[in-house]
Amino acid sequence: MIINVLRKTRLYFILSVIKSAIIYYYYFIVNRNISYFDYKKLAKSYPIFSTSKNPGVIGNKCYGNLWAVKNAMSNGFTENCIIEHGLYFGEYVLLEDLRLNKPEVIYTYGDYRKNVLENCDHEFLKNVRIETVGPYINYVPNFAKKDTLGQIKKKYGSILLVFPTHASPEVDLNYKEDDFLEEIKAVSKNYDTVFISLFWLDILKDKHLIYEKLGYKVVTAGTRNDPRFLNRLRDLIELSSMTMSNDIGTHIGYCISLKRPHYYYYQKIEMKIIQPFFSSNIDVNRQVLIQEEKKMFCNIFSSKEQIITEEQIKLVENYWGKEIYV
């Protein structure tokens, strides 16, 4: 009887792997030509396929980071790794990833994070190599062809690309949206078109409706499980004349690395934990993040002018890496 149970368990595992693979590669193929303008289709999430149950291995594929880092590291890429897929401040680390599979190397953006991880006393980081990659977005090709990008640019003229802060399946956020909308309106007077780059979860919550009502063009790079996320994001940034956001994230460094000015409109953002499992890590990260906002980002990216200052470049080089003009 025990053997039969084991056989059923093994069979169930094999069938679940096959099912996950079919779903993942089906959407991989179907979504290959879906552009950032078809946001409703791109907002449909699907699970990342991996034969490993380790969240670190699965997380490496988020946003297409795995392919970007592989391109960056070429033959020097180490498979047993963790790829940080966010701009982390302080000694915040994804503990579950480290507990379940001790990596040989952690790939991250720039020297700031490398120095923090190499000098913190975290037991899980002992004998783990830290390597900087620079802005991952620099190591992926554009999503659309050059002539297609030219046609889009001709159609929409000068573009203000806006990144509203977004929640996640684990955390919800609260801020004064009306104030942000007023700021977008004020800044947009100098541009032909406003693109609003929304996170897939906000589209599912119908947050795109208010932007469309105001006459803005809603776009998205896809879900975090979409391997072409960075490719679409690169297009959107390079199509723009100016970028803008109301929170700190990887988008700031990506914009500067792709030579697009960025304006950061500071707002107080309250966080609400949805999944308590993540609460301790996220809470610490958010507390440190707020302090960093006040110290540097708020002041350094406070200009609405279409310029990139030396001070901004130095900050981005520190946090995102020095290879910012490839």
Describe it for me?
The chain is α/β, with parallel strands linked by helices. The strands form three sheets. The chain has a five-stranded parallel β-sheet with strand order 7-6-4-8-9, sandwiched between helices. The chain has a three-stranded parallel β-sheet with strand order 1-2-3, with helices on both faces. The protein has a two-stranded antiparallel sheet with strand order 5-10. The radius of gyration is 20 Å and the shape is globular. The protein starts with a helix and ends in a 6-residue tail after the last helix. The mean pLDDT is 84.
User: Beta-sheet strand percentage?
Assistant: 5-15%
- Helix share, percent: 40-55%
- What overall form do the CA principal axes indicate? globular
Separation of the first and last Cα atoms: 62 Å
* Low-confidence parts: none
Spatial arrangement of strands, main beta sheet = 7-6-4-8-9
* H/E topology pattern: HHHHEHEHEHEEHEHHEHEHEEHH
Mean pLDDT: 84
Q: Structural class, from secondary structure content?
A: alpha/beta
Q: How many beta-strand elements?
A: 10
Computed Rg: 20 Å
Largest sheet: 5 strands, parallel
Q: Helical segment tally?
A: 14
Give short descriptive properties of this protein:
single chain; 326 residues; alpha/beta; five-stranded parallel beta sheet; three-stranded parallel beta sheet; 45% helix
Topology readout:
Blueprint: H1 2-30, H2 39-42, H3 55-59, H4 65-73, E1 81-83, H5 95-100, E2 105-108, H6 111-119, E3 129-132, H7 146-156, E4 159-163, E5 171-174, H8 177-188, E6 193-197, H9 200-204, H10 208-213, E7 217-219, H11 229-239, E8 242-245, H12 250-257, E9 262-264, E10 270-273, H13 279-300, H14 310-320
Parallel strand pairs: 1-2, 2-3, 4-6, 4-8, 6-7, 8-9
Antiparallel strand pairs: 5-10
Helix pairs in contact: 12-14
